[in-house]
Amino acid sequence: MARLSKLSRSVEGKVVHITGAASGMGRATAYLFADEGAKVAVTDLNGEAAEQVASDIRDAGGIATAWRLNVADPEEIIAVTKAIGEEFSGLDILVNNAGIGVFAKLDSDKYEERWQLSMDVLITGVQRLVRASLSMLREAEHGRIINIASTEGLGATENASPYTAAKHAVVGFTKALAIDLGREGITANCVCPGPIKTSLTDFISEEDKNTFARRRVAVRRYGDPEEVAHATFNFALPSASFMTGVIMPVDGGLWIRNA
Length: 259
Ligand code: NAI
Description:
Blueprint: E1 15-18, H1 24-35, E2 39-44, H2 47-59, E3 63-68, H3 74-88, E4 93-96, H4 111-139, E5 144-148, H5 161-181, E6 187-193, H6 206-216, H7 225-236, E7 247-250
Parallel strand pairs: 1-2, 1-4, 2-3, 4-5, 5-6, 6-7
Helix pairs in contact: 1-2, 1-7, 3-4, 4-5
1,4-dihydronicotinamide adenine dinucleotide binds at residues 19-20, 22-26, 44-46, 69-72, 97-100, 121, 148, 150, 193, 195-196, 198-201.
């Protein structure tokens, strides 16, 4: 059938770089983009696990290559971004997903160290990846940046201030990117996941997860990584060309619930 609409809802042939793609939401996002015909650069601090994800994608008939990348290392960011560009002849979509949970009480001896780690991984890494990728995103027909923040980028939880501050910075940085890059047709958007079942939340018992979800989450459960991957995917589409600077909770209604 001939197409009746102008705007494409396909990422077929697009090159996407997903950081922290060896596990959880990053892996679910890598699988989804691969299923939809994108060429996927799978990077992670855990190089072996990243290779496994790329190999799963290739086994399923998709296109993917893995690299070990520590997003807290500026030199690795430059080298891996260049390698991705060479491997796939460019870059269309950058998904800044890599992350760690960083908790610390304000008077803890380890506070400075925890703060620095949080900033290095969660926000400085995002800034460096965007700047390293910029020339390729400018060459792309529909350049897209999607940053994975958190509902901690909108509110705060006790004893998580290094993480909360970094995730608020991701929200602010995304808005600034949308303003700075808008005239070039590159969009920048932010996904704020709520409580999602991944290795980051493994330490919380099922019972505690259920209690929290019953009290706080409108849909009364934790989310699955795939549900976040689909939100990310929507921002990456060529048809998402007028959505930029959006800060989108994907949280089962956690954010809007008062009691
Ligand atoms: P996950 O632990 O399953 O996956 C995170 C991945 O990032 C891992 O594969 C890990 O090896 C990688 N990683 C950690 N440090 C890295 C570094 N320095 N360089 C490169 N890769 C690194 O966790 P999840 O939940 O899938 O996390 C993905 C993103 O979602 C993170 O940014 C996290 O802060 C955010 N998030 C998670 C929520 C949850 O409930 N699970 C809620 C809100 C946000």
